[in-house]
Design goal:
Order of helices and strands of chain A: HHEEEEHEHHHEHHEE
CATH superfamily of the largest domain in chain A: Jelly Rolls
Radius of gyration of chain A: 18 Å
Oligomer: homodimer
CATH topology of the largest domain in chain A: Jelly Rolls
Largest interface: A-B, 38 and 38 residues
Distance between the termini of chain A: 33 Å
Number of helices of chain A: 8
Helix content of chain A: 40-55%
CATH architecture of the largest domain in chain A: Sandwich
Number of domains of chain A: 2
Shape of chain A: elongated
DNA sequence: ATTATTTTGTGATTTAGATCACTTAATTTA
DNA sequence: TAAATTAAGTGATCTAAATCACAAAATAAT
């Protein structure tokens, strides 16, 4: 734990803060598709992502969902932070897109560290900013882009996060994330393949052009 | 200034913090439609809203825009905070939806107060949370609602923020905010009128049902 | 190997919303 | 008061995406 923490966070946190995190943080390994936070959960702390990729989705009353963004190593879940601090409920679901490793930080420390460590304050504010910007990007795609553009962005974004040039996914899964139908995705994917941007396989999409 | 500050913020901030705000804050009155923050601006501080209503919109490269949310008294602009702290650019435009009063807080104090005042920390985190939640609501509308539902939500939300049951606006203005066309808005408004939810006038929409 | 299941492909149809083109009504300006 | 401008109404057409209804592969289960 300390090793990875230092690898990804030593340029973010002071040494003393890293020491504290090692002391109070709870290491957890998430298997693929494991749910980390569910709708309406009250958070007892926040996760610090060491390795892997976490998908954050929003769900409406009819159980339909839409992808908000992905988290990767170095990220934390701003929504959890919010929920942890204010004892409120979390309006999102977070699930591991692949095997991931996190450190769970107890909420008692969150405010304490705000006083003690400048790097923690910066990290928290930075995290919120990144998240706000991600949300704006999501709004941009929904408001200004057509399905084909959104789809291509989804594929390249996800590939980036997963650190792979191929995605192991089905058309139906993409449709869920983008809140549309499988038929639409299948047709647009075929179109992107004809344009030479991707190559389709069963359960797998190769991205040829970024 | 002190008077309004105490009226709306005395339950939020400690007395000492209010004193400091009075000392370093710059009071500003915004006339209707005045632009407070524009796309790409670097913020030298953040606005604290005393009175009025501020509209926050996002614009894409083609100059098309979409409403993100409104701010009302007691709110601050989280995007500005982000931008001010990190010296980055602001990805939004903020304009006064009606005559408003703000206090401009210099960015030098933002981090200093994080150390000194628990209430300031809470306020900053709370503001971010509120904004994240607003953004999620915006995403919900875009992803899950049809135009008619979005329109009705827009009207009732805006009326709430403006503290009026009638809105002085044109169909075209609504169309800009919702990133659609005037024709679509006109037809849906007529429909809502037929359903008895609103009453249409020239340059004015009465909301009959909330 | 045969059957069942999952994933993908594809035609046909429908629909919300976009776009075009123009009219009518209200308000402002000259 | 007449002309110009701005706001709103409305028919016609178009299109992206949704929906329905299957067929055809690929893979997994028996």
């Amino acid at each position: 734990m300390r090793e990875k923490l230092e690898k990804y966070y030593s340029f973010v946190f002071e040494k003393e803060l890293i020491d504290e995190i090692v002391q109070v943080g709870v290491y957890k390994k998430l298997r693929e598709n494991e749910i980390l936070v569910d709708l309406g959960d009250k958070m007892k702390g926040i996760p610090l992502l060491l390795e892997g990729a976490i998908k954050i989705v929003r769900e409406d009353k009819n159980g339909e969902e839409i992808l908000l963004y992905f988290l990767e190593r170095g990220d934390t879940c701003a929504s959890s932070f919010a929920s942890a601090i204010s004892n409120g409920k979390c309006g999102i679901r977070a699930s591991a897109e692949k095997e991931s490793e996190i450190i769970f930080l107890p909420k008692e420390k969150l405010d304490e560290w705000m006083l003690k460590y400048k790097s923690w304050r910066t990290f928290v504010i930075e995290s919120y900013n990144i998240r706000l910007n991600e949300m704006m990007e999501t709004i941009d795609s929904l408001a200004f882009m057509n399905m084909s553009e959104r789809l291509y962005k989804y594929l390249t974004d996800k590939a980036q996060i997963m650190r792979e040039t191929s995605l192991n996914t089905t058309h139906q899964d993409i449709a869920y994330d983008m809140h549309t139908s499988r038929v639409v995705i299948s047709r647009l994917l075929k179109q992107l393949e004809n344009e030479g941007k991707i190559k389709l396989h069963r359960n797998k999409i190769e991205i040829l052009e970024f």
